[in-house]
Write a structure and sequence with these properties.
This protein is of the alpha/beta class. It has two domains: about 15-275, Alpha-Beta Barrel (TIM Barrel); about 285-320, no CATH class. The chain has 13 helices and eight strands. The chain has an eight-stranded parallel β-barrel with strand order 1-2-3-4-5-6-7-8, surrounded by five helices. Strand 5 (about 140-145), helix 6 and strand 6 form a beta-alpha-beta unit. Helix 6 runs parallel beside helix 7, helix 7 packs parallel to helix 8 (about 215-225) and helix 11 (about 285-295) packs antiparallel against helix 12 (about 300-305). It is globular, with a radius of gyration of 19 Å. The relative contact order is 0.13.
Length: about 325
């Protein structure tokens, strides 16, 4: 049953900006300090509830010489931007299972500017994800679990995963359309499934959509209408491959007067055309349509774009051969 309508304010709704984290996948996290500061203040002005700064990646796996600092999100680097963050907006980071030394790098909440740790996992790494969640909860953080690539998983396995995570201290289940393969009907059905387990265990549900089929915004507001509370966005959709639900679209859609689009427009006009001029690639385009329709990882489309290819039909057949 739908929750709310196009004219109502949902007090449970939280907007999370993932521009630095998902967008960092487009430029290896090499954002300059001015951009990050401006994004932080634009999000505050827009009424955004959470800002995700990037990953807590293990420096023994990823060289700091090859990636910008938001691949690692050291507490001191975040503090240089937010200070004590005396604002209503909370700070989030992502811990990727198998790619983070969480015991070394995630410190007690009392010592950190971070409020939430989101844990990214696949179905086959659930035990490791549970360890991270348990650790972060003990450290005092809000936690979320992002089960990736569920469009490739069996429904019964997803249900079992939600049952397992429901018994953990995690606060939020995230419905993640990693490949931009879902249509609104599927998003509604999965939202209902996630909400079923969230209600059972006293959790909340979030949605993270990719725009391969130009449906990230539609899928996000369909999940919202079903009762999903946490909504991921990025400025101008900046994110891996086809990108994400656009901040300026969703903030302009929500009826709560605390949300404002003008700070986002001001931020976008300063930086994002230059990103494109500098060769940073993201956004809805033909190769991402093809991977989205085929429920395939976008890495092949990203490589296609970087090679400046336009032979879309050949690419289509190449993917067929890979199935």
């Amino acid at each position: 049953m739908s929750k709310g309508n196009l004219l109502s304010v949902r007090e449970d709704v939280r907007v999370l900006d993932a521009t630095l984290r998902d967008g960092g996948l487009c430029n290896d996290f090499f954002f300059d300090d001015k951009f990050v500061n401006d994004l932080y203040h634009a999000n505050i002005g827009a009424g955004v509830d959470y800002m995700e700064f990037g990953y807590k990646a293990d420096k023994n796996i990823f060289s700091p010489e090859k990636f910008g600092k938001w691949k690692f999100c050291d507490d001191e680097d975040i503090r240089e931007v937010v200070g004590e963050n005396n604002t209503p907006m909370k700070i989030a980071v992502m811990a990727d299972v198998g790619r983070t030394d969480y015991k070394r790098d995630i410190h007690p909440k009392a010592e950190s500017p971070v409020d939430m740790v989101r844990v990214a996992t696949y179905i086959n790494t659930i035990p490791a994800a549970l360890d991270i969640i348990e650790h972060c909860a003990k450290m005092g953080y809000e936690t979320a679990i992002n089960i990736m690539a569920i469009s490739k998983e069996r429904t019964e396995d997803i249900r079992e995963a939600l049952e397992i995570f429901g018994k953990s201290p995690v606060n939020i289940f995230y419905l993640v359309d990693s490949y931009g393969a879902f249509y609104p009907e599927q998003i509604r059905r999965f939202s209902q499934m996630y909400l079923e387990y969230a209600d059972k265990y006293g959790k909340q549900v979030g949605v993270h959509a990719h725009d391969n089929q130009s449906l990230a915004f539609a899928n996000t507001i369909d999940a919202l209408q079903e009762g999903v509370s946490f909504l991921d966005v990025t400025a101008l959709g900046l994110g891996r491959g086809a990108g994400n639900c656009r901040s300026e679209l969703l903030v302009g859609f929500l009826k709560n007067p605390k949300y404002r689009t003008e700070p986002l427009y001001n931020h976008i006009e300063k930086y994002y055309q230059k990103f494109k001029d500098d060769g940073i690639l993201w956004g809805f385009d033909v190769p991402y349509i093809i991977t989205g329709q085929r429920n395939s990882h976008p890495r092949s489309a990203i490589a296609f774009q970087k090679a400046h290819r336009t032979d879309y039909t050949n690419f289509f057949y190449e993917l067929m051969d890979m199935d």
